[in-house]
Amino acid sequence: MRTDPSALAALLRQRLIVCVGAGGVGKTTTAAALAAAAALRGRATVVITVDPSRRLKDALGLTELSSEPQALALGDGAARLDALALDTKRTFDRLIERVAPRPDVAQRILANRLYQELSSELGGSTEYMAMERLHELLQDARYELIVVDTPPSADVRALLEAPLRMTELLASQAVDFLKSPAAIITGQESSLMRMTLGAVLKALERWTGLTLLRELSDFVSGFEHLVDGFRARAQAIEQALRAPDASFAIIATPEPNTLSATLAFDRELGAGNYPVAGIIANRVYDFPPLLRGAGRQIPAPLRDKLTANYADFAALGARDRAALETLRAEASVPLLAALPVLEEAPTSLTALRRAALQSYSSRVYADSAAALRRRGFAARAGAWTVSCWPAMRRSSFILTLTRLPCSASILARSRL
Amino acid sequence: MAIPRLLFVTGKGGVGKTTVAAALGQHVAERGERVLVVEMAADRSLAALFGHSALATEPASLAPRLDGVRVETRALVESYFRRLLRLPFLSRRLFASGTFQAVTAAAPGVTEFVVLEHLVQWTATGWLGRRAPYDLVIVDGPACGHALRLLGTPRQLAALVPRGPLASTVGRLVRLVGDQTHTGVLLVTLPDEMAVSETLEARATLKRLDLRLTRPVLNRVWPRRFSAADAAAVAALRARRDEPLLAAAGLEITARREAERHLGRLRRAFGAAPLPVHEVCREAIDPSALADIGRSLARGLGADAN
């Protein structure tokens, strides 16, 4: 299985990286690791996370309400790395205040009960606000790279087009309809029809208990003043996503049921002409078939348990090899990295740093094939080889990273 | 208590909701009850588990006594309003105008209301005690947040709509959702910090809504293979010289330890032992793996007791 480290290096030189992928693939953590990898290479970076776990929040130095960038100390001469958690409601409020022509218009909307419900609850509002927050940060000169984690969404186009869609929705005839429901009937229709519609709408109002429609109308007419502001921002976001310095990374796991989702992301993004750098496979079980005689030195009762246990891991290894081959054969973009499953998820800054190094130098091994064989790996040339887990434990691993250009060329030649 | 007739299987994305729903549905159907599995997500993974490319929007047979159906939210909302407006030309115009989408997208609860009303047609006893078409309807869940919204909607609407024909339908939904023998939620989670935390939050919210919760399912648990002494021996060997055989054991030991910690958290919060489902170490989940999972789930949920 070959990955493409030069494409990964190119990805980290971009201005904007959008991480997309199915739910549960480790998108947030991978986004954070990518951001850390870029910062370690000297680029001032900010990562927008959506719904990080408590421990990742702790690792990123985020408190419950960190919707503003928090600085992280990576050390070792790393560039600035800031992290923030998306706060849908607050971002939405700020957006309203920014695009409203007058403060009283903003206040009226912010006070509307429907707005309060919609800004945090409506399907698509998280997606919309992730993009909106991105727009805000693009204006911030402190950052050379912005990494965006996205909400879990099966429909990637819906996510990216959320700003445009929401704007169109608000600019649609809905506004006219709610101000004057008969407006959907155009000139050539009879007045009888108009009357019928009027009666139906009255019935509808009675049926819904009246208040709902009135509040809705109030809400929508409040938004009317904001449409131009929304539209301008939506277009700016759309442009930023398609700029030459923007790239998408599809985060995946090699599990059979996420494969099809990953390929769907690839197709969808391709169809929308979004610039996709490639796929990052996460949590790969990198366990090759054992060499004969492995674990000879271990006393038999334990060795038997170990061998029985290994059979499961080797089976998962076979599953993942096949999955990655499928991705390579069927996806239109390269595999940027295959990150082995970790004993512990990166929930501290040190672990995140390690994951960052790993994501950047996955499959860059200091070890010679002979050394690997001594460890009991079936290291056949051109075959699936081993992960960097042995290297992770060594201090020399960091050195590996600093010699990356050289390692990358070794990698290219060795066709790991 | 037996499994509630309308069971929502929910959890974070990727925790294995579909596997749990399919396995349980298949097992209960094999024992002779009429089961319907409902697919809410658009990814068609439920259909794939039964070797179909997609499920239809009307119940269709997947296996003896086991039917499957797909819920298309948009189409449901449209057909609901079509019935309501009664005049075809009006509804045609309404749907074509773009207005309709805007209104339903904006009006909170409309979609949820229509979906719930659609689901209970398969479980609720009809007029004059007509038997419900299915003994068990398993909804292969919307993700947690969405499911909570769905189940919270009847109460919210009841507050918004105090009277009128809508109010009586809403009242019926409030009763069915609150009926502990009718509606229940099965939370599926993984031995992972975030997944378990989200499950505990969901539990708290569902409890506030007085909803019936079954024992939670902890999916993808590694079995306990190594004793404490084994673990110490493995650690000592790895410190000297690591190799794949030992690394795999290390991964297993850590994963099992994590799983036990999460089993404990869930047990304390739910006041009942969670049901562990073991990691399936195969290419894909095949029928025999599905049958194994179904059997242990049904036993754990008390479905085999009645």
Quick recap of the structure?
The complex is a heterodimer of chains A (416) and B (306). By secondary structure, chain A is an alpha/beta fold.
Characterization of this structure:
The complex is a heterodimer of chains A (416) and B (306). Chain A has an 8-stranded mixed beta sheet, with helices on both faces. The N and C termini of chain A lie close together (7 Å). Chain A has a single domain, classed as 3-Layer(aba) Sandwich (Rossmann fold), CATH 3.40.50.300. Chain A has 416 residues and is of the alpha/beta class. Chain A has helices at 5-11, 27-40, 54-59, 88-99, 103-111, 113-121, 125-138, 156-160, 162-171, 173-179, 191-208, 211-224, 227-242, 256-271, 300-330, 349-361, 369-374, 389-392, 396-402, 404-414; strands spanning 16-20, 45-49, 70-72, 81-85, 145-149, 246-252, 276-284, 335-340. Chain B is an alpha/beta fold and 306 residues long. Chain B has a single domain (6-301), classed as P-loop containing nucleotide triphosphate hydrolases (Rossmann fold), CATH 3.40.50.300. The termini of chain B are close together.
Mean pLDDT of chain A: 72
**Helix proportion of chain A:** 55-70%
Number of strands of chain A: 8
Distance between the termini of chain A: 7 Å
- Number of helical regions of chain A: 20
CATH superfamily of chain B: P-loop containing nucleotide triphosphate hydrolases
Spans of chain B of at least 5 consecutive residues whose pLDDT stays below 50 are none
Identify the most extensive interface between protein chains. A-B, 78 and 68 residues
Indicate the structural class of chain B.
Answer: alpha/beta
Count of helical regions of chain B: 12
> From the 3D coordinates, which CATH architecture of chain B would you assign?
3-Layer(aba) Sandwich
Determine the fraction of residues in helical runs of chain B and give it as a percent range: 40-55%
Largest sheet of chain B: 9 strands, mixed
CATH architecture of chain A: 3-Layer(aba) Sandwich
Number of domains of chain B: 1
Write down the domain tally of chain A: 1
